[in-house]
């Protein structure tokens, strides 16, 4: 089988997983259900992925790659930017990556633990690319920041992203429990919460 055919098949499997993830939870999705959304047999999936976690990790890898591409466009198309403008653009880019936020906040450990090293390395490559591209933007637009300040931003911003989705996307059950327990909470969109956090981390 050629690399091109392999890549096309992998992409079809990832697309099927993404489609199911819009309406189903991670635990309810199986290789069988993913296979039913493809044009080839379920058993054929094992030629490309050994576990469902590998398929989800491939979806997350694609999300990071697309986000890095968008960040690269921000870098290339802007000669200068103040902190508010950069925070706005970065927050908008995060808003478009709902699957990325959902996966890293809810299923990161399972995906990494139950994937072969080759799939994990593929993912880490694009995760690293996203980090480097954000850093490249910070280096370009905020020359007055010290290296230590830039490091603090990068290594606070990426962990901060893990908490965005579960804060914004509450289930009805969670909302009821929070109301009964009198948990302070303010409704924010992904963009709004990301914008607040980015501005704070840049200040």
What attributes does this structure have?
globular, 2 domains, 203 residues, Tetracycline Repressor, domain 2, mainly alpha, single chain, Arc Repressor Mutant, subunit A
Describe this structure in words.
This protein has 203 residues and is mainly α. It folds into two domains: 1-48, Arc Repressor Mutant, subunit A; 57-202, Orthogonal Bundle (Tetracycline Repressor, domain 2), CATH 1.10.357.10. It is built from eleven helices and no strands. It starts with a helix and ends with a helix.
Set out the fold topology.
Blueprint: H1 3-21, H2 31-35, H3 52-77, H4 83-95, H5 98-106, H6 108-113, H7 117-141, H8 147-161, H9 164-168, H10 172-181, H11 190-202
Describe the structure concisely.
This protein has two domains: 1-48, Arc Repressor Mutant, subunit A (Orthogonal Bundle); 57-202, Tetracycline Repressor, domain 2.
SSE class: mainly alpha
Quaternary organisation: single chain
What is the top-level CATH class of the largest domain? Mainly Alpha
How many structural domains in the coordinates? 2
User: Major β-sheet, in short?
Assistant: none
